[in-house]
Each structure stands twice: as C-alpha cells, then as structure tokens.
Design brief:
This protein is mainly alpha-helical. Helix 1 packs parallel to helix 6, helix 3 runs parallel beside helix 5 (117-137) and helix 3 (72-91) packs antiparallel against helix 6. The protein is 51% helix and 3% strand. Strands 1-2 form a two-stranded antiparallel sheet. It contains 6 helices and 2 strands.
Length: 187
Amino acid sequence: MAEPGVPQHATPQHYAPQLSSDNRRPTPAVGSERETLGAVLDWHRATFELKCAGLPPGRLSERAVPPSSLSLHGLVRHLAGVERWWFRIQFAGEDLPLLHYSDDDPDQDFDDLSGDVGEAFALWRAECERSRQITAAAASLDETGIRKRTGEPFSLRALLVDMIAEYARHNGHADLLREAIDGSIGR
C-alpha cells in the first residue's frame, strides 16, 4: 500500500550526467513519422559529433579500447561512407565512388587513419547534409531505392530506421572510446 502523500510512480533522482557542451535539439515528443525519424537520426548524428568534441586531432585517432581497432577518426570516416552508400548511391541512385572502401582494402575506413581529421569531419558533415536533402526531396517515406547487392527495393522509412540503428551502435562505441581517452562520460 502506498504511503499517503508519496507518489506511487516517483521520478528517479539520478540521471546520466549531461555533457556541458550539449547543444543537441531535443527530439519531438509528438510529430509525424517523417519528422520523428528525421529528428531522431539528426539527434544521433549530433550525439556522435558531441562525443568527439573538444579532443585534439591526434587523440581522435587513438585506438583506445584494445584489442579493437576502432577510433573516433575511423568512426567518422566509416559514417561518412555509410551516409554516401545508403542515401546517395543506393537510395538516390547517384553514380559516385565509395568513400574509404575498396574490394582490395575493405576496412580502410578504420585502418587507414592518414589524412586530416578536420577534413574527415567536414566530409562527414557534407554527406549528412546531402542525406538530409535527399530525404527532404522524397515525396514520401514509401519511396524506394535499390540494394546494389540484391537488386531488391527498400523504402526511405526502412533506410531511416536502419541509419538510426547504425548511429546508435556507433555512438555506443564512441562512448567507450571517449571514456577511455579522457574519462568523459555523459549522454
């Protein structure tokens, strides 16, 4: 039996700390499917950028969680390639080269950390912006692209859900890397 004056569903008092530099826009609590999916994907993109913020370029290239070869620099290269592959090449049908990939060197996004980290982030931001443009230009979430591997169609809706999952997975990696690099934690 509940005590008089004490709410039955008390609000927790201890939340994960929020990073002081957090300027992400909150996702809509109410909105259309398209608006919600786009906002959640952008929130995850901003989360990844936030996890990388404030580190000197050399630290972004650290492989800080052995035996994994992951680094924040490698993740940004990977995410730029993923954005291009899914939105531009497969969904929009643009004829472009792959980023940080070849059949002879399929893991170069993570393995080859030569090049300027700032340029890697600029390229990723440009790919994210092009993905937003493609999404905005689509008449509906039911528009389709074609999977290069199978020739089967996939909807923009499925693409947005898959990209949210991709970023959620890699944001978890970024959490661990950042904590190992400088002890930063937070949501």
